[in-house]
Structures are given as structure tokens and as C-alpha cells.
Amino acid sequence: xxxxxxxxxSVIGGAFDWSLDWxxxxxxxxxxxxxxxxxxxxxxxxxxxxxxxxxxFLALTLQIxxxxxxxxxxxxxxxxxxxxxxxxxxxxxxEIEPALQILDVLATMLDAQMLPRQPLxxxxxxxxxxxxxxxxxxxxxxxxxxxxADLWQGFERLALEAVRLEDAKRK
Length: 171
Fold this sequence. Notes:
Blueprint (H helix, E strand, L loop, with lengths): L1 E5 L2 H4 L4 E5 H43 L2 H15 L4 H5 L2 H19 L5 H30 L6 H18 L1
Antiparallel strand pairs: 1-2
Helix pairs in contact: 3-5, 5-6, 5-7, 6-7
């Protein structure tokens, strides 16, 4: 339906016939509303992702700082500083594995893009690098003993990245 709209001559300098097609107007409004709705949906998805990442970050922080995991890290450092090597470390597997396992889980979550890499590496990069430097002989001995070259590969990739970042900070 087309409705003529007239403006007084004083507004536009004379009579002017604006024809308004209400179907086209409704289509334009509909497109505008759709764009706004999509933008709001996009914002909501972003906020949901941020919430998920925050909750996951908090849960992982609690796991990494869990007393059992902290004790395992301390025991690993203590054994390595005392001169223990790969095979000697294998005798203490039950004591030190929790420290390495949680970092392998962290690596898996980062590889799956469940968490943002930068805040984790800036917060825990030094600890990850130190755990790898201390735990590498143990990991290699376990891989050899079990014949599993893939054991804790995620942790190794993450740790090597952390070592590079820590070295870059020092330079």
C-alpha cells in the first residue's frame, strides 16, 4: 500500500509528494531489528565465554594451588636439588606425579582453547618452566619404562613455551 505524504510548502519550498511504501519500510525496520538482535546475541555469547573462562581459571587455580599438588611440586624440587635423576625419581612417582599431571591437564585445556593463554603464562609460566626443568628426567624415564613417547606431551609443549617466555623476560 502506498500512501501519499505531503509537506507544507514552507518546509521544503513547495509541494512535494513523498510516496511511502509501508512494505519496504517494514522490511528496513525488520533488517535493523535483526542486526541489533544479532549484535546483542554476539555480545551475550562473548560474555558467556568470559564467564566460562573465569570459572575455569578459578577452578584450575584452586587445583594448581591445592596442598597436595603444592607438596608434590615441593617434593619434586627437593629430590632434584638432592641429585635424584630419572630412574631415582621413578621410585617417588606417587609423590611427584600430581604436580606434573595437573600441568598436563592445563596444557590440554589451553590446546582446546578453553582458557586464554596469555594470563596463564604470565601468572604461572615460571612455575611451569621450573616444573619441567625439574621433572623432565622423570618424564623421560617414565616414557622409556612404559614405551609411551606421548606421555605428558602436552605438558612438555606448554613447558617449552614457558621456558622460551621466561628466557625472553630475562633478556
